[in-house]
Amino acid sequence: MKEQFDIKKRSDIFDIIVVGAGPAGIAAAVRAAESGIRVGLLDDNPTPGGQIWRKGATQPNTARDWFAKLEASPVVRLHGWHVFAHPDSGVLLAERTASAEPEAIELHYHKLILATGARERFLPFPGWTLPNVMGAGGLDAMVRGGLPIAGKGVVVAGTGPLLLAVAAHLAHRGANILAICEQAPLHRLAAFSLRLLAQPGKVAQGINYRWAARSAPFHTGCWPVAANGQDHLESVTLQRGEQQWDMACDYLACGYHLVPNLELPLLLGCRTQDGFVTVDKWQQTSIPGVLCAGEPTGIGGVELAILEGQIAGLAATGRVDKAGALIQTRDRSQSFVRALEQTFALDPRLRSLPSADTLVCRCEDVSFGALNGYSSARDAKLHTRCGMGPCQGRICGAATSFLFGWTADSVRPPILPASFSSLAAPVSAPADELASNHISNQNRKDTL
Amino acid sequence: MPEQAISIVVNGAPVSVEPGTTVAAAIVISGSATRVSVIGQPRAPLCGMGICFECRATINGFAHRRSCQVLCQPGMDVRTQ
User: Fold this and answer.
1) If residue A158 lies in a helix (H) or strand (E), which one and from where to where?
2) CATH 3.30.420.40 given to domain B6-79
3) Residue A206 contacts B where some CB pair is shorter than 8 Å
4) Is the Cβ pair A395, B52 closer than 8 Å?
């Protein structure tokens, strides 16, 4: 009998909570639950799959396999919830995202697996705040969420393997892909393709994507320098070397590869290095009992995320023999992290995209010009409010890191805006209920 | 539109969407911006995945909901800011 999460409880205890229901989180939860313990899988989105396996389009076989495994497992699923605080060791506070009304719950855990995934990196350029300028993954997600795209003219731009995947999916949904603009130069993409020959699956996927959007010109070393329009996007100005031209379009889907979602790992105190969570060979972070898998440990794509998730789920439940058997494959797949990093490294000329009045912080409307002369993200935040709006620097942080070399300001709770009722109301269940739950969990744990 | 289309209200006007449609998509379909920025610019969803907060709207009276993470339910009342 599959257990449904009961919101009326307001508080619950799990042996393991997995945060993030993308490929890494699903793999971690499924493998952890095999050992008979109580596993909770929590995710901000209304359905499982994360961003890469977002619902609303044909899914690859790997996704279907893991969805089936998740369906067959006793994992307790909390879709449409986001963690906003970590008041104490072993406790998370979460608020409901998916409903109109904010509701909060308190979740207790013995071990935690962080699979918080990644988001797109956005770089500011004139006009990027116009409606219908979106991320590449952003437009894709909106279309999967019901935005009609058939017959619309779309320019796909930015950098990373996501661009081709997005162009292919949008073309499949009837969009007219006008151009695909990849900022990386041709020679680096060629080297990347050669490297991929060792992984026929990835090559085949790339060829399929390109074929699906074959009518669109693919420009390398090319990026949008302006989005033009009054109240919404009407055209983009593209630049390649010395050449500049305008292209009328309905949507610009522009994202510069991915950056990890580190807010929760940082809130928990996990050590990071060069912008990624540090883990040992068992995916264990610097905080005992807290593991991390997938993009937060290095942007490496779905296959690596599934391996890391499985290792985390197995290691967290003490099955080191099974986890150990996957280590070699994972370590080999990690070369893909470096290949992505090198291939899609940002062209330094992208730093000159914003003009003085281009907004960098979209929440507080702080311009590029207003940020000049500050020495750090904190300094700029205190003086200009850059990064102080509801997104808490999630968008402008990656931009100012690239533009000015700033590192993100420290993370403080709530890591996502929470309603006053969620912050103020103690949501704990009566102490006796918690205590009895603890005992039953403790007993289960002893059998591990 | 399939028969099981969902009807919601965006800024007082009815919008009909397919099941599984996010409130953010419904707002864009309605032709409205999702919010007006500090300096008065119209804004629409950027990230589509709950990160950027450009899509925040008042849903059934609850303010600042990330509309891209909320699925349309019949009769929902959505107001943009």
Assistant:
1) strand A153-159
2) no
3) no
4) yes
